[in-house]
Amino acid sequence: MNSGDTAFMLIASALVMFMTPGLAMFYGGLVRSKNVLATVMQSFISLGIVSIIWVIYGYSLAFGPDVHGLIGNLDLAFLNGVGLKPGPYAATIPGLLYCAFQLMFAIITPALITGAFAERMKFSAFVTFTILWTTIVYLPICHWVWGGGWLGKMGALDFAGGTVIHINSGVAALVAALMIGKRKGYGRDSFLPHNLPMTILGAGILWFGWFGFNAGSALSAGETATVAFFTTQVATGAAALAWILAEHMIHGKATTLGAASGAVAGLVAITPAAGFVAPMSAIVIGFVAGAVCYLAVLAKSGFGYDDALDVVGVHGIGGLWGALATGLFASKAINPAGANGLFLGNPHQFIVQATACGSAILYSLALTFIILKTIDITMGLRVAEEEEVQGLDLSQHSEVGYSL
Question: Which CATH number, 1.10.3430.10, 2.30.30.760, 3.90.1150.10, 3.40.50.2300, labels domain 3-393?
C-alpha cells in the first residue's frame, strides 16, 4: 500500500464524480428553460441509481473473476471480499478505492446518453433504461476491456474509456434518438440553448474533472499519470481551437458554445490515448477531433435524426476517432505497458483497436435497441404531446427552474 497513490486516487475519484454534476450543467444550459430541471435530474439521479447497482452486482459483473472472456461472475456481489487491502487491479491502493474509482466511470456513462433524448423521455422510462442499460450493456463491455475479458486479452488499448464509455454511449445515443423520434416542432420551432453561461461552466467543470478521469486511470501518482494529465490539457485546447476555426470558416463566426463543444470533443478523443501517446501526438488527436466532431454535428440535419445535445457527434465520433488514433500514435517509449501504434511500425495494434471499436458498436447498438423497444412496449418511452409542450419540469417533476 502506498499512501501517496491512495491520496492521489481519492482525489481522482472525487474529480470524476464531480464530472456528472458538470455534465448536468452542460446539458441543462443547452435545453429550453421549461426542461432544465428534468435534464439536470437525469444526470444527477444517475449518481444514486448506478451507485446501488455497483454495490449489489455491478462491480462483480465488471471486475469479478472472468467467465469465458464475456462477463465477471458474482463472487464479488455486495462487494464481498472487496476491502482495504490492494486488489488485483491496483497494487498500491485499497481494493475498495479502485472499486470507487470505477464506480464514477459507470455513473457518467449512461448520463452521457441523456443528451440524445433530452426534452422528451418519461422520467420513469429513463430510470428503467438506466438500470437495464448499465446492467446489460455497460458492465459487459467494461469487463471485455478492463476486467479481464476478451478485448483486454487481445491487447486493445483504452486508457480511460474511449471504447468502454464514449463509443458505447454514443452508439446508444444514436439508437435512442432514432427510436424516440424528433422533438415536437423540430425543424420549425426555435430550440436555442436557454443558458449558455451555465453550459460553459459545465464544460469547465468537465475539463477540470477530466484530469481525474485520465490521469487517475494510471492508478498511481507517477510518470504515466503525468503524461495523461498533460496530454489531456493540450488535446483539449487544440480541439477547442479547431472547432471555432471550423465554425469561422463555415459560418463566419466563432461561438462560445463552439469552444465548449470543441473542448468536450477533445476530452473525449484523448481519453483512450492519454497515457499512451506523446504531447505532440495528443495535439494532433485533439485538433482532428475538434474539426471532425464539428462536421459530424453539422451532418446531423442531413441524416434527419434529432440528437438534441449532439451526443453522437461529440462522444460517438470523438470516441471512435480517439480509439483508432490510439492505434496510430501509441508509443511504448511513453508507456512500456502499452504498445506501439501503426506510425511506429505496428499495424496490428490498429487492427486490434478497430476490432474493439466494431465490437462495442455492434453490441451497444443491438442491446440498446432491445432495451428501448421493451420499455416502449411495456411502459412507453415518450411523454404525451401536451406534456412535452408544457415542459418536462412541470409534467414530470411538478417544479420549474426559474420563477422570474
Answer: 1.10.3430.10
